[in-house]
Amino acid sequence: MGLFGKKNKEKEKCPICGGEMGFFSSELLKDGTICPECAKTLRGIYDVEHWTVERADGTLWQKQYDTLNDLTIEEARQYITAARQEQSEAVAALGQDYSAIFKVEETFTIAPKALDVGLKRSKLLKDKTVVKGLVQAGTFTRDDSVTILHGEQKIETKLLAVYECDGVSDFDTELGANMCKSAKTNCHAWLILEADGAVPGDTIAKK
Ligand SMILES: [Zn+2]
Question: Model confidence over 174-207: pLDDT tens digits?
């Protein structure tokens, strides 16, 4: 089918959520396309990989590959259905008390170099915990006061930085650019916490 073959067709519906898809606002999987809202949830897990190949003449060739293109619609549906299920359970359990909810999937500590992020930020961010996970409700923004829900324990802390996972930039790139300051529902994001103590499976919540 050519570029103009779809012009007169009715708008396609996303096979996962049923939302309408524009021709240019859909994401290609292995066996079909899904809407950008559904793709957003997969970003952070299925990202664009970048690498460099050296040509025979010694010049460098930047290559990239979108790992979303390897995923089948059925695999995407299973992932998103499970994420939405967890999301509605989290909102049912915490939605009365908190306006924003984040599920921690992985954690790591950072010690960024002054050369990369500036002297002030390198001191501020030294040995801090980064949590990566899914925003299940609301919006998280830099400087927000948040609570780490760690089993029975509650740890009050603050967000030093927030970066949404767009599927293209890795954490170090986002940290170096220091552009994004908020992350919204259904997106994966990196949050830099002032306090220690968060582990995978914890929830970060905001009043
Ligand atoms: Zn969709």
Answer: 999 878 789 999 999 999 999 999 999 999 999 9
How many A from CA of 87 to the centre of ligand 1? Answer: 16
- Tell me how far apart the 2 most distant CA atoms of the chain are, in Å: 63
Q: How far is the CA of 76 from the centre of ligand 1 (A)?
A: 10
The alpha helices in the chain, defined as continuous H runs, are: 36-42, 73-94, 114-117, 119-125, 171-177
Ligand 1 centroid to Cα of residue 191, in Å, is 25
CA of 134 from ligand 1 middle (Å) equals 17
Measured in Å, residue 68 CA sits from the centre of ligand 1 at 14
First to last CA, the chain: 50
Taken in order of first residue, the domains within the chain and their CATH numbers are: 8-94 (no CATH), 97-206 (2.40.30.10)
131/2: higher pLDDT = 131
Q: Is the dihedral of CA 129, 134, 137, 138 positive or negative?
A: positive
The amino acid sitting at 189 is A
**Distance of CA 36 from the midpoint of ligand 1 (Å):** 7
pTM for this prediction: 0.87
CA distance 75 to 70: 10
